[in-house]
Structure formats: C-alpha cells, structure tokens
Amino acid sequence: xxxxxxxEDEEKWLAEGIAGLQQNAFYMHRSLDxxxxxxxxxxxxxxxxxxxxxxxxxxxYYELYMRAFDELRKLEMFFKEETMKGCSVIDLYExxxxxxNILPRLxxxxxxxxxxIKSKEAPAKDILKDxxxxxxxxxxxxxxxxxxxxxxxxxxxxxxxxxxxYEGDSDSFIDAVEFVLQNFTEMNKLWVRMQHQGPARExxxxxxxxxxxxxxxxxxxxxxxxxxxxxLDMYKDxxxxxxxxxxxxxxDEIAQHYLMDCIIQVFPDEYHLQxxxxxxxxCPQLQPTVDIMIVLSQLMDRLSIYAASSAEILPEFLQVxxxxxxxxxxxxxxxxxxEMPIVSAISLYVSLLTFTLRVHPDRLDFVDxxxxxxxxxxSGRPKIEDNxxxxxxxxxxxxxxxxxxxIDTALKLSNFPRVMDHLDNATKKVMAVVIIQSIMxxxxxxxxxxxxxxxxxxxxxxMKDMDGTQDEELDEEDFKEEQNSVARLIHMLYNDDxxxxxxxxxxxxxxxxxxxxxxxxxxxxxxxxxxxKLVRRLQVHEADEIDEDATTTPKKIFQILSQTIxxxxxxxxxxxxxxLYLQCAETANDCDLEPVAYEFLTRAFILYEEEVADxxxxxxxxxxxxxxxxxxxxxxxxxxxxxxxxATGYSAKLLKKPDQCRAVYACSHLFWxxxxxGIKDGERVLLCLKRALRIANAAQQMVNVTRGSSxxxxxxxxxxxxxxxxFEKGNPxxxxxxxxxxxxxxxxxxxxxxxxxxxxxxxxxxxTMRYIQFQKQKGGVMGEKYQPIKV
Amino acid sequence: MVLVLALGDLHIPHRAPDLPAKxxxxxxxxxxxxxxxTGNLCIKEIYDYLKGLCPDLHVTRGEYDEDxxxxxxxxxxxxxxxxxxxxxxxxxPWGDLDSLAMLQRQLDVDILVTGHTHQFKAYKHEGGVVIxxxxxxxxxxxITYDVNPSFxxxxxxxxxxxxxxxxxxxxxxxxxxxDFKKTAAPQPAP
Lengths: 791, 190
Fold this sequence. Notes:
The structure holds two protein chains of two kinds. Chain A is mainly alpha-helical.
C-alpha cells in the first residue's frame, strides 16, 4: 500500500477508483435484475474493494465513499425484497461474511444488519453490539472512520430508544447509548491516531486532513443528543463522564478543542448549567495548547442567552452557583498553566466579566470579584507593555462602564482603580476618555465630593502630568481636545444642596490647581461659572429664607474664586483672568457685597494696566470694564467715582484716536443709568461727549487722517447719535441747539471734497437724519421734544 | 423661502457641556440656508459642527471666543433684507435697545442680530428689527437670571420675515413666532 502522494496523481487514482466502482456496480445491478444473489454479492464485494485504497486524501476518499453509499442503498432495498420473498435474513447475514476482504465484508454486514434490525427477528441492541464490535477489524484511520460513519448513518433511525419501534424490553435505550458511546470512542481513537502517522514534516497536511474528518466524529455526539431516553441524570452520571473521559484521555489538542466545542453546542443549556462542575472540571486537564478561552467563552455565551430567555431560569443560576464555579474553573486553568501569556489570562477574565454583566448585573460583588482576580494576576508584574494585553484590559474596564450607564456604579467597584493602576500612562488616558464619554453620553451627574474624588483618581492622567510622561509627544490639537472634555465634565459635577456643591467645588479646585499651567486655561473657567451659578442660587434663595446657620455663603465662594483666578497668572492668561474677575464683580454686586465687588474690579484694572498690552485687546478689555461698571449699583459714591475716573482715564489713553473717542463716549453711560435709583448726572455725561468730540476733532487734524468707518465724520455721526440718546432721555444739558450745531459740523465735514466722503458714513448720516424726522413726526411727547430741531 | 438660523452665546465648554439634546435633534444639515452666529462658541469644535449644519456660516467675535480673528461686525444681504451681525459686548449699555438701534443705523441694516445678554428679544422700531437669539445652551449670564436655551429661525420671503423663536422650557421645546414686514425702500434724498 503506497502512501498518498501529489494532487495530480490523486485525481488519477480517484478517477480510477470511481471507474472501478462504477463498473462493478453495473455488473452488480445486472445480477440484481436477474435475481442472482451470489453474483450480486460477488460484484458488490469487488465494488467495495475500491474503498480499500490508502492513496486518497480524506476529501477524495469521501467522493468515492458517497458513490459506494448510493449503490449500497440499492443493494439494501434488494435485500429487503429478498427477505420479504422468504429469504432468511439470518442466512443473509451469514452469507455476506464470506466476502474475501474484511472491509467489503463489514460494509455488507452493516447493510444486511440494517435489514435485520428492521425485520425485528432479533433485538436491535444485539445486532448493533455485534456490528460495533466487528468494526474493530479496521484499524486504518481513514477507512475505519468512514466505515463507522456508515454504521452510524444506517443505524441512527433504528436505535432502541424510548418510544421507538425497536425498543424491545425496558431500558434498552441504555444499550442504544452504549452503542453510540462505543462507536464514538473508537472513532475518536482512530481520528487521534492520524496525528502520529507519517513524517513530521507533513504534520500540517495531516492536521488539515484531520480537520476535514472531524464532523464524522462529532456526529456521534449529535446522535446522542437526540436519544430521548437520556434524561438529565443519565447525562450527568453516564453520558457526559464517558465522553469527557475520552476527550481528556486522548490527550490530543485538535480532538479536545473540537469535542469540547461540540459538547457545548449539541447538548441543551439546561444540562450544561446542571453539570457545570463536571464540564469545567475537565478544563484544567486538557492539553495546555488548547485555547480554553474560546471553549469557555462559548459556554458562557450560551449560558448568558439561556439566562435571558426566561425569568425563572435566573434563580437556577444562583442555586447552582454558576458564577462561583466558572470563576474557580478559570482560576484553576490559569494556575495550572503558569506559562500562559498574560493576554490570554485577561481575555478569560473579559469573557467571565461579560457573562457576569449579562447574567448577574445586579451583583456588583461578582463584578468586583472578577476585577479583583485580574488585579491578583497582574500584581507583581511590571506595567503591561503588550499591546494586545493592554487592549484586553481596556475592554475589561470599559465593559462595566458601558453596562452601568450611571458612572456611580462603576465607581463603587473597589478593584476598578486597582486594575487601572497596571496600565501605562497612555492607556490610562484612553480609559479616562472612555469614562468621560460615557458620562457625557448618558448625561449622568456626579453628586458628591467623594465620588468626584474617586472619579478624578481614575482620570488623573488627563488632569496632571504623570510621573515619567514626556508630554512633548502629545499633539497640541489632541491636548486641547482632552482638556476640553475635562472642561465639559466639570459641568456634570453637581448637587442641588449648596453644602454638597461647595464641597464639590473645593475638590475640583484642589485638583485643577495641581494640573499645571498648560491645563489651567481650560479647567478654571468651567469651575468659576459652576461656582457663580451656585452663588446666584444662594442669592435668589436668600430672598426667600434667611438661614443663619448656613455655612455656605457667597462670600466664601468668592474667596475660592479669587484664589482660583489668581492661579491663571502662572499660565499666564491675563485676558481670561480679567474677564473672570469682571464676571465675579458683577455677581458680587448682585449680592450687595460692595467690598468684594470692588476688590474684583480693582484686580481687573491691575491686569489691564500691567498685562494687557495688545491695543486691540485693550479696546475690548476697556469696553468690558465699562460695560460691567455701568451695570453695578452696589458702590457708594467714593468707590464709584474712583472706578469711573480710572475707566475714563484709560479710555482716553488708548492707542488710536478713534478707539479713544468711542471708549470715552461709552463712558458717558457710566453717569446715566436708567433704573430708578440710578445715577443721572447730565453734566458729566455732556463732559464725556464733549471730550469725545475733541478727540474726534484731533483725529481730523492728524496728517494722513483715516477715512471710512473710523474717519472723523463717522465719529461725529456716532457722537450725534449719543446726543440724541441723552436728549430723548431728558438730559437737560443736551439742547436742541447743541444737536443742530453738531449736525452742521458734520455737514461741513462731509461736504469737503478733500478727501471725499465715505459711502457708509453717508448712509449712517442719512439713517440718522431719517430717524430725527421720524421722531419729529411721531407726535406726542417725543414729537414735541424734537420739534425745535431744524434740519 | 430662505431659512436663516440665528444663534449664539453657547459658551462651550466654559459654561455649558453641550447643546441641549432636543435642539441637536432638530438642527439637521441641509435644511438651513444661512447661519448667523453672534459669537462665544467658544471652541473650534462648535464652529465645525455649525459649518456641518450649513456651509454659509457667519460668525462675529464674542469676548470668550478661542479664535480671535472673527470680525467685530458683519453685514450681508439675503433677498430683500440687509442683515447685520454683532456679538453686542461692544455696545454699551449692554442690551440697551436705543444703543443697539444706533448700531443698526450705523450698519444700515433692516435686521440686526446681536447677543451677549443671553435673553431672547425681537424688537421692532422705525429703523427695522433687532433680534437677540439668546443663548443656545442656556449658559450662565451675569446679566440675565434664569436663562432658558433658545435660538431663532428666520424665514425670509420677499418683503416679509417670520421670526420663529425656539425655547427649551422645563425640558419641552416651545415655539413662538413674530411677523415683520418691510416697507419698500424709501427713495434716496436728492
């Protein structure tokens, strides 16, 4: 018997085999047609001899086998007809054993056996026992597997199962089980033997061929699962232990992996749940090369789905302590294989965690336990470098975050931060982002300073420079994105109760102040505004109930704010700090805290004086100061005077004349506030407007005077509009003749051809004049006021 | 029918984490023809988001905007209307309608869109209309107490503009509308 060789040769041999088979089949049919039993047997034996070849790979052998199979069906039908005509099936059974070679003999025997069982002249169990024993005669793996597969196929509908017509006396289903188990065991042995046949260099080819044959072996398990007579007890006491015994003892990686998988797929989940200990007990005994993770996660997957299928099933899981058993089994597997790479161990825990979150989501202790087991495995090792392992740890940590939409729950897992500790800094940041995204997506609020503290520990990689990080690596855009997400997060830290909220604010303040100058510009503003919202709430409620014992006061909060904004000087971020001081000033003003408001405004001025150098920035800053000051009513006369004097002074000192002009006339509003007790100093208003006019005039005198929107003509029109504003408000210092004079001045200025006037200024003047006309025609008080103005 | 979205003072991430979910689900790309944003986005992410809603995006500078190069004011013509855009912190007293009317005359526009106070306003006077879309995120304001998130959608059709204001009150979106008709442009004085 020559071993199978190259592909082309194989095709040739297969063709030869098929040809031989078909030829003998032809003669066999002719013999059948002429009722010549002896000849039929002779030719069928010859036909089956083609299956004696060793030259074909399993794939090709299968083709030959299928053709033989088809022919044997017809032969079987003939046998049946013969027995119905009076021929004894027992005689037939004996007759076919005269075939020369053992393989054809056994195929024929099985075929007659099928008829024999159907005739019921002997118990099915006896015939089956006989056949399964006889098949031992073929020890060649491929031939043996196909033969036994044939036996399995023709017998599967004739097993003496409960309720079957072949049942015979009671409990014969035990014999059916025994039959299938024996066939299975023998087939597995043959299958495993293939691994060791042939030279070492052909191992890969052999393994591929084995893989092609695996379903032949697995089919037996499927047949077992269909036997009605097997109940849970029999499965537990007999079937599973026998199958597992074979699986473990064969010590073959391919067989073990495939068969464990088969067992899990083929038998009901109910059985698995009740035999968990036995099934899991086999796992540590398997070959170390078997990927136990896949096997176990398959099992846990099925059990998760089973648990979800009905509400009554879940208590069963608790009753059999499914979690504990799985947890122990995984622990054992990991312990038995100290060489197991860390990524595999973590993957096992990820699988277990997935199971736990699906089946026992309410049992945080279970979840924490899984994380704890992981911590134990990771402890004593250096920080994880392996990318795959890192990814698995991120998956492990992300699972509870995703499952429990409220981050509060994840924060309760004591082992969560411990697992995080084992990540390198870059991955810690990845996890931090996962956590923040979950909070933002689910709009969950973190409501106590303790929880905030716990959360910040988890995301500390984002909040400060960790030891050993070289942050120059980090892209500026990425850094900004990171910090902006931290900023957004700060808005999710909230509690209705002022005491609690203040604690939260303090905690946040403590953490951001050690974040380093690069981060402050991002993290300080959201904290400030969060705190100002609290101040506003206190202020509004103070009107309702005055709580003498309240320890949370606006004053305390302003202290914290002051200190926090000051930290921005280390960045430095003066323009931002100036704006924040102004916000605080205004809010303090609304609380009637005059000294606090004064202090904030003073600081804003100091920053303006000393830090804001860019001329454009100065223009914006001074307008913000004027706008804020204009709204503030908490100041006594002296303080107010000091501040307005400063504001007007700085306005007049801006770099460019048009900017000076505009700032100064803006200052006029500092002396005229429309609400009841607001200041209405008409004289000082007029002084400002006149000063603005002088500046506009001076701008005109300058060589290379600017045109267009900052030209003196435009400035005059703007000031004219301000005159009209105060005129309408009833400032006695603004007279109709003053207005007329100003209009005349503008007209003169505009009519000078050198340089020609700007169209936008023209339009502005036109609309202003239209406005005056409109007001004159209005009638009533306004119309009367405007009446004297001649245009 | 030209749809113009007016919004501003989002103050993300300084004062608010995000636009309200209900607003975001209403604002879908492809429906709006122009966006006028009063300013204080504050970060580029928000600019990109708005640009994704509508490529014709106009932004004026708010005092907290990360990008300092947005213009102080902007004017554009849509149909029969001239529109002006300005954040509003430059116009003192803040929120004062007469002072805003002056800016409107200066820019020579029919509709002035301005913000800063975080309070929705739609005010008609002889010179035209002043609209404040409020704060789209309901951000804290030292000027206005109890800010509800709001934005404005203008439907410009010939000489008529319908101003829809969307406000988020107690978790529900409320809509109101105001009609404005422009009289035909007066003849220029000889």
